[in-house]
Design a protein that fits this description.
The structure holds 2 protein chains of 2 kinds.
Chain A (H helix, E strand, L loop, with lengths): L1 H14 L3 H28 L39 H13 L10 H9 L2 H6 L4 H34 L13 H31 L4 H14 L11 H9 L7 H7 L8 H28 L7
Helix pairs in contact in A: 1-6, 2-3, 2-6, 3-6, 3-10, 6-7, 7-10, 7-11
Chain B lengths: L1 H17 L3 H29 L7 H21 L1 H4 L1 H7 L2 H6 L4 H6 L8 H18 L5 H28 L8 H14 L8 H10 L2 H12 L13 H4 L2 H18 L7
Helix pairs in contact in B: 2-8, 3-8, 3-9, 3-12, 9-12, 9-14, 10-12, 11-12
Classes of the chains: A mainly alpha, B mainly alpha.
Amino acid sequence: MKAYAAAASSRFRSAFQYRAAAAAGIACQGFWGLILIMGLEAFYAASAGGVGTAGASGAVGMAGGAPRLGASWLGLANGAAAVPPLSSMISYIWLGQAFLVLTPWGPDPEVRDTIRTGSVAIELLKPLDLYSFWLSKALGLKAAQLSLRALPVLIFGGFLMPLVCLGDYRLSPPPTLGHFFAFLVSLVAALFLCAAVVGIFDILLFRTVSAVGATSLAASLVSLGSGLLVPLPVLPPALGSTLKLLPFSGLADAPFRFWTGIAPLATLPASLAHQVGWTIVLVAAGRAVVRRELLRLDILGG
Amino acid sequence: MRAIRLYFMLIGVSLRVQLADRRSAFIQIFGQLVITGVEFVALAALFERFGSFSGWSLPEAALLYGFSDLVFALADALSYGFDSFSSLVRNGDVDRLLLRPMSPILQLLGKELTVKRAGRLLQGAAVFVWALIETRAVDRASDALLLFFAALAGIVVFSSLFLMQAALCFVTVEALEVMNAFTYGGRQTVSRPLSGYKPLLRDFFLLVVPIGSVVYLPIATVLGREGLPGLPTWVAWPALLGAPIFAFAAYGLWRLGLRRHTSTGS
């Protein structure tokens, strides 16, 4: 146990070194957040008269009224559930930027290098369970990145925006203290789920070194399914609720719904069960695959 | 002339290297196709829910989205050398670049033509062609000509951004992520009608980084729309001049950085 704790804490400390890079990252994320917010705001503005009806006739201005893909796409989508208020989606987007590191789109770079160079063989010599070692490292890395990035971006969105006269685009606080605590609990569960997802990415790499295809598939599922690309509550309900079932909604969407007050507090147990359940499933699946893979592992490098 | 022949030789080598493992190259292209395809799914889903963006329908917005992705993919593939310049600075390899009797910019451009960007390119092209069929927009020779020059200008502006990123390496190699705000941020912004954004962001990408001027305005023109309320459609032609001006500025920054460069590494 001590060894795993050491792996997590040493990774935390080494990732904490890059402060200039972190500052650049924060500026970039602040700007990116604004782009996403303004992009969504324009959609809200277009449908000011009521979602689902506005624009459908007015928008097709020219070229002889080209048929819209929308009409039948995903069937019953329109009007089934109300679109949440823009201000809550603005907060959702800021949270997405603040907790960006919880939506991984690749393996742990350190683990990737040990597989590429073959030094994974040395790790195997250690009297440790390889997969637990990886998971602890991922947990430490993500915790460090989280504490470096989250607070500054939250301050950027919550306090800087009103200061530079962009008050409409600010991150609003949670509606109640209860929602805030629900958010925190859900966030911790998200951190563990995130480590489990990184573990799956690591394994994809284990199977073939050029696992780029599978990794990109997984990465696009993460970015769409977590609500990072577009907040899940503003997607067409059929698509949004399907994505909510996947593990990736537990990385970001679940805690964000509590902060923004979209999810009532009573849904916390169900939401936590979703996160913890998927964490257990992913870890168990990953561990089983690694155990089998180790029997036929080829070591690279020399 | 000799420089251009050398450039194509370098690119030929880089293509042979990347295509040495066909399967791996194919998988990488496929991976990019999937990742960028999901972005379009997300955009289409938003149109499904909200109907329109600043008065543009999905096919119209898709024309802009596909075009901007096409342009960005080409610029991204060409500019690999600029994008990876920080590792040269860090290792002290810039010296080697400067010793060779060929423009450093050309050497960097010749470093690699990234094959996997074909994934984004294919996705952008597919969306663009679908949107063309749906909107029946480009029906005059002048429209096609405008889009051709717009594509060139767009590639120039994006590549200039990557060159600026390389120039920034002479100051710091840690804070490069800042440039992503302009490269990827510019692509994201200009992939939707600029008229829908607040003036602050809109004018930044029209006037400071003129990617909106050379990509968005031409698309609005071929769709027969005003790019901004009250702006005549012919403005798209002179707006293309933003590209050479911006490239000139990027080149100036690059020269400035090169002059103050001190070598690192051993």
